[in-house]
Amino acid sequence: MSNAAPNPSDAKILSTAPLTNENARWTKLVLTTYNDPLGKKRTWEHAERSTRPAESLIDGVGIIAVLTKPSGPEIVLQKQFRPPVGKVTIEIPAGLVDAGEGAAESAVRELKEETGYVGTVAQDVGVVMFNGEYLGFPPFQQRACEAASKRAGAKATSCLVHGLALSAPHPSAPSRQTLLTPATDPGFCNTNLNLVHVTVDTSLPENTNPKPQLEENEFIEVFSTPLRELYAGCKKWEAEGYAIDARVGTLAEGIELGRKWGV
Q1: β pairing state of 120-121 and 220-226
Q2: Could you give the CA distance from residue 153 to residue 252 in angstroms, rounded to a whole number?
Q3: Which residues contact 228 (CB under 8 A, 6 or more apart)?
Q4: pLDDT digits (tens, 9 = 90+) for 86-109
Q5: How, if at all, do strands 87-91 and 243-244 pair?
Q6: What is the distance between the alpha carbons of residues 71 and 222, in angstroms, rounded to a whole number?
Q7: What Cα–Cα distance (Å) separates residue 257 from each residue in 58, 253, 260?
Q8: More confident position, 116 or 122
Q9: C-alpha to C-alpha distance for 222 and 115, rounded to whole angstroms
């Protein structure tokens, strides 16, 4: 019997089916009624998490964990299969906060559980960020979106498939060879988080051979890449068929902008 760790790429979607709020454990669909800026009453269908602790302002944390190495700083990343997109995604470590837990405490705990690394929060916790769990879409949704766009005269750049807003490339848009395609959707979900910066001292004994403490339903492959190569890495991973988590893609774009404009 092989002792090799399970490969996230070996996961496969078997089926999809409607889910009622009564049978949902983690999320729920809601209908919000609101007034627009002109005073007109409107409604909005969206999703909400059911797991946020009553006393918490956030659902979870995203962790920008940087390894200090003689060769230069490296960012800790993960490969994890995400059923909503039907792909393995490139992500930063992340997780939901527990009751009574602050963002910094949650970040240190989640980092240890998911990667094995022991880190130190490097600065004050950042602003609350709102994001959805939707990152791109599987091939069958791509085909449905393209068909809907064709029926609309090839001018539409988004469509609805199974209740999700999906973006399709406009004919005049730059090719996928020149753009990353991370996506996030605050119009679909109220999920929010704090990004927490954590420094991992790789010279410490506890970080020389880190061992994740995963739950039985978690299959995460941990790796790191030099910060200066993150943008190029994202383009490479996307070309290999991985989905790029919006937090990873946005960070990579920010580093690239800083390099381009010298800020």
Answers
A1: unpaired
A2: 34
A3: 72, 255
A4: 999 999 999 999 999 999 999 999
A5: parallel
A6: 19
A7: 29, 6, 5
A8: 116
A9: 6
pTM for the whole structure: 0.79
Which of 75, 64, 73 is closest to 234 using CA atoms?
Answer: 75
Residue 131: its pLDDT value, please? 63
The 3-state secondary structure of the chain, one letter per residue: CCCCCCCHHHCCCCCCCCCCHHHCCCEEEEEEEEECCCCCEEEEEEEEECCCCCCCCCCEEEEEEEEECCCCCEEEEEEEEECCCCEEEEECCEEECCCCCCHHHHHHHHHHHHHCCCCEECCCCCCEEECCCCCCCCHHHHHHHHHHHHHCCCCCCEEEECCEEEECCCCCCCCCCCCCCCCCCCCCECCEEEEEEEEEECCCHHHCCCCCCCCCCCCEEEEEEEHHHHHHHHHHHHHCCCEECHHHHHHHHHHHHHHHHCC
- CA–CA separation, 201 vs 237, rounded Å? 27
- Within 8 A by CB and 6+ apart from 47, the residues are 27, 28, 29, 30, 132, 188, 189, 190
Please write down the long-range contacts of 202-205, taking CB distance under 8 Å and 24 or more positions apart.
Answer: 202/67, 202/68, 202/69, 203/68, 204/118
Q: What is the pLDDT of residue 2?
A: 54
Q: What is the pLDDT of residues 199-220, one digit of tens each?
A: 999 999 999 999 999 999 999 9
Tokens of 216: 């039985």
When comparing pLDDT for 132 and 73, which is higher?
73
Instruction: Tell me the C-alpha distance between 94 and 135, whole Å.
Output: 15
Predicted confidence band of residue 122 (pLDDT cuts 50, 70, 90): confident
Largest CA distance in the chain: 66
A 10 A CB-CB count for 77 gives 22
Q: What are phi and psi of 248, to 5 degrees?
A: -65, -45
